[in-house]
Amino acid sequence: MITQAMTLDRYLWQQQKAFNIPVELSILISQIGYTAKILTREISRAALVGQLGLVGDKNATGDAQKKLDVFSNQTIIEAFSDTGLVAALASEELEMAKFMDCRNHTPYVLCIDPLDGSSNIDSSGALGTIFGVYQRKTYNGCCSVEQDILRSGTEMVAAGYILYGTSTVLVCTCGHGVNGFTLDTSLGEFLLSHLNLQCPSESKYYSANLSYAQEWQPHIQKLIVHLNQQHTSLRYSGALVADVHRSLIEGGVYLYPSTPDYPDGKLRLLYECAPLAFIVEQAGGMAMTETKRVLELQPLSIHQRSPLIIGSKATLTLYEQMLQA
Ligand code: AFP
Fold it and tell me: What average pLDDT does the structure give for the chain?
């Protein structure tokens, strides 16, 4: 069903009734949708309003920080300040967790990469936002604590991503299937466009930075040889969200493996790997570090990295067999 009538808010309201999802979680996702509209506007006019290029600093995890990274992070913070929805925020752009609201009953923790694929900004390539939501665990005292954030993905209550591409698409799950909404800019509304997304089992595409291939583990190299033998087409955008979205729609696998210099790979567990793993699993796909299920990994620090292999089930199952051989 593709209907002009199913706005994101109406869908969230229906999910709330059907699955007993708390109203605060619906409002949180709706608020993410609002920030996605702001970012869509800012990204599309960035070259016209001086928002391209670097700020001059490195971000919390040592990456060069772009003006749009800073803007995106600030937009998220403002969207959740004083809402009573988010007690703690972990963001790629913040060195430490931000404890946002000290009311005792504030229910959620938000882990977010405000702008994924920032190296694409200046060349008008695809960009994304990735988020995962946890129910706050500790209610003793007022403020949330780091313990509320350092949780394995199996505890996640909702996750989503926004792809800023030829259109802006918001894909989300509250643990009852995955649905996608496309922004109708003339209405200013996200409308249901991808009902009950199912990741095709076979991979039509694979996405990886092959310039590191010689440094990868033998079983990863074996998988790449297999994909090439099958003429699985290579597509790599430089934005994880865009490559994972393609895999969900068309069937595919995205890999960012470890190397000897980077034994945990490049991607961050809490606000990149785990939320995408939750979404892809909900859509019938799989997500692994090189050796285990991503969602079962217990983070030890906010900006912890993890290798990632994510996408179509048949390809991931084959990879598991190669690993065990
Ligand atoms: P940036 O946000 O720093 O551009 O990183 C994007 C990313 O985390 C992910 O979205 C890409 O798939 C991957 O890194 C690209 O990394 P390489 O440039 O090393 O291929």
Answer: 94
The ligand 1 atom at the shortest distance from the C-alpha of residue 243 is 12
134, 108 contact by CB (below 8 A) = yes
CA distances from 101 to 145, 159, 200, 325 (A): 11, 21, 41, 50
Q: What angle do CA 176, 198, 1 make, to 5 degrees?
A: 80
Measured distance CA(52)–CA(142) in Å, rounded: 40
**Residue 193 corresponds to which tokens in the numbers above?**
């466009």
CA–centroid distance, residue 84 to ligand 1 (Å): 33
* Model pLDDT for residues 127-166, shown as the tens digit of each residue: 999 999 999 987 766 677 788 999 999 999 999 999 999 9
3 state SS of 59: coil
Q: Which positions are annotated as active-site residues?
A: 63, 69, 92-93, 113, 115-116, 272
Please tell me if the CB atom of residue 64 comes closer than 6 angstroms to any atom of ligand 1.
no
Distance CA 131, CA 136 (A): 15
